Structures are given as C-alpha cells and as structure tokens.
Amino acid sequence: MNDTRSQPAPTGGVRIVQVDAERAGQRLDNFLLGQLKGAPKSLVYKIVRSGQVRVNGGRAKAETRLEVGDQVRIPPVRLGEQGDRGAPAKGLLEAMAASIVFEDARLLAISKPSGIASHGGSGISFGVIETLRALRPGEPLELVHRLDRDTSGLMVVAKKRSALRELQALMREDPAVKGETINKRYLALLAGRMPDGVMSVDAPLHVGLRQGGERHVQVNDAGKPSLSHFRVLERRGGHSYCEVRIETGRTHQIRVHAQHIGHPVVGDDKYGDAAVNRRLREQVGLKRLFLHAASLEFALDGGRVPYVLNAPLAPELVEVLDRL
C-alpha cells in the first residue's frame, strides 16, 4: 500500500492506516488518539488490550513504537458527533490564554493549572490540547508530553511536526539523539523530614491497570528503569519542600518514588498518606497534589538552539508554603 492515508476496508468501519514518516516513533496509543478524535483514553486502551487493534497483522501493546510503513488496523468505534461537546467554557478559555508563559514559531508553553487534564476523555470534554485548539483554530497544535491532571506547571505544545518529533525523541532518550538531554525539574512538598543532600531513587516502575481502566504504578523489578533525584530546599511545618529532577519520564514517577522512600507527595490521594493529607487540608487549606512542573531545559536543531522554559509555582501552593 503506497497511500499513507487511512484506507476503508470492505466491511465499512474497519480502517487500515499506514504509518508515514511524520508519525514514525509515535506510541500506538497516541497514534490512535490522533486517529480517533474525541475517543477517551479508556476506550483506546480497551480496543488495544482486546486485540481489535493490530499492527502488521499482529497484536501490539499501547506503548509500542510505530515505524514507517507499519500497517495499523483500527476497528470501528462509536463516538459522539463532533458538535456534541460544544465549546470550552469561557472561563476555561480565559484561564488557558492566561497560562501561556512562552511562545515562538514552533513551540508554545503553558503553566497548566491543577485539575485540568492534558487532553479530553474518560468523562472530560476539554483538556489542555482541546482548549488550546479552540483558542487557536486552524493551528496544528500537538502535545509534546503530558502532566497528570492534578499536577500543575510547565507543559509544552508543538506548533510544527519537526519540533514535535525532535522533542519526543529527547523525552524518550532516543539513541538517534544520543548526547542531547532534556532536564526536567519539579517542585514538591514531601511528607516528613527528608535527609539533607540529594537522595537518588533508582527503582523500576511497572504500570498496572485496575478494574475500570485506572492506572496504578508500583515499584517492581518487571518495570521500566526509572531514576529520580530529590533535594530538600527547605523544611516547613515538619515537611520537606523539595526540588525533584527526573532522568526518565515514567507514569506517576515522582509520586511513586516518593512513596517508595517513605515520604509521599502531600495531597496525593492515590499514593499518599491519608492522615497527613487530611491534616494539611484542615490546617493550611491544601486541596490538591503538591507537585509542580517548574522548568524544562533542552536544545533543538541538534543542540544548536537552547531553550530554558519556566513556570512559577502555582499561587495556591505558594499560599500553602506561607501558612506552614
């Protein structure tokens, strides 16, 4: 098949899509989210797990990296009409416009508020990318990476496919860009008193799915290599305000590594300490996860064009620190 566009099969709903150079290296789940506009992530994972999606005739995992020429079978799925979701609320559009911290010809960066998903799905009509596309109709905006819904801070969106490919290669430590790095820095409040200095956590992480499709991550030798570095900046109210640098970008990495060392991120309903969370909610009004993506440093064009992007700590987190 020479045509890289989707080809309808005689059965009517099934499509066979050939991967072109623009999509090479993309994960299968992200590829499907692009092909099935409006589909929730839970549906995408379901059709992959059930074997309805095939790559070159065989079953594949959601994290499979696609290559040029791969044939992807996409089954028919029932999605609402494009107009069903309407438009993002005015307040969300205004918040997203106000969150932009950097923009040039190929990248746009925002300081994402906590509570907004990276993209729609699983009962969420509008995430970051849908809202930005509504703000910038006609612009080819694509997410470079994701943040957990409850995490605030720096998110980068590509305006050009070339920038998307290069940044995603950096994010996944692609051998083709060996020697180039992307430095990711977070700010977090961890429960209890962390020791001074830098504590490095080298512990593999495995993503499991609970009933209903909810992801749950744990330290497990069968998981992927994961490395985080925690450094105490100051102590507040018996807890540790830390800078966290991560060398890998696994799902829930900081949250699970923090739990693993006995100092979970405060405000974490999934991996945290319920008693600490309740006490901080009552005493200082902490109503969210205290985790913020503070900065990204990288270079494009083979290392020739450096970027240093920053997102100031979310105001509600500054207030919590002031009250501790």
TrEMBL record:
<dbReference type="GO" id="GO:0000455">
    <property type="term" value="P:enzyme-directed rRNA pseudouridine synthesis"/>
</dbReference>
<keyword id="KW-0698">rRNA processing</keyword>
<dbReference type="InterPro" id="IPR006145">
    <property type="entry name" value="PsdUridine_synth_RsuA/RluA"/>
</dbReference>
<feature type="domain" description="RNA-binding S4">
    <location>
        <begin position="26"/>
        <end position="84"/>
    </location>
</feature>
<dbReference type="GO" id="GO:0160141">
    <property type="term" value="F:23S rRNA pseudouridine(955/2504/2580) synthase activity"/>
</dbReference>
<dbReference type="Pfam" id="PF00849">
    <property type="entry name" value="PseudoU_synth_2"/>
</dbReference>
<dbReference type="InterPro" id="IPR006225">
    <property type="entry name" value="PsdUridine_synth_RluC/D"/>
</dbReference>
<dbReference type="InterPro" id="IPR036986">
    <property type="entry name" value="S4_RNA-bd_sf"/>
</dbReference>
<keyword id="KW-0694">RNA-binding</keyword>
<dbReference type="Pfam" id="PF01479">
    <property type="entry name" value="S4"/>
</dbReference>
<feature type="active site">
    <location>
        <position position="148"/>
    </location>
</feature>
<dbReference type="InterPro" id="IPR050188">
    <property type="entry name" value="RluA_PseudoU_synthase"/>
</dbReference>
<keyword id="KW-0413">Isomerase</keyword>
<comment type="similarity">
    <text>Belongs to the pseudouridine synthase RluA family.</text>
</comment>
<dbReference type="InterPro" id="IPR020103">
    <property type="entry name" value="PsdUridine_synth_cat_dom_sf"/>
</dbReference>
<protein>
    <recommendedName>
        <fullName>Pseudouridine synthase</fullName>
        <ecNumber>5.4.99.-</ecNumber>
    </recommendedName>
</protein>
<comment type="function">
    <text>Responsible for synthesis of pseudouridine from uracil at positions 955, 2504 and 2580 in 23S ribosomal RNA.</text>
</comment>
<dbReference type="InterPro" id="IPR006224">
    <property type="entry name" value="PsdUridine_synth_RluA-like_CS"/>
</dbReference>
<dbReference type="InterPro" id="IPR002942">
    <property type="entry name" value="S4_RNA-bd"/>
</dbReference>
<dbReference type="GO" id="GO:0003723">
    <property type="term" value="F:RNA binding"/>
</dbReference>
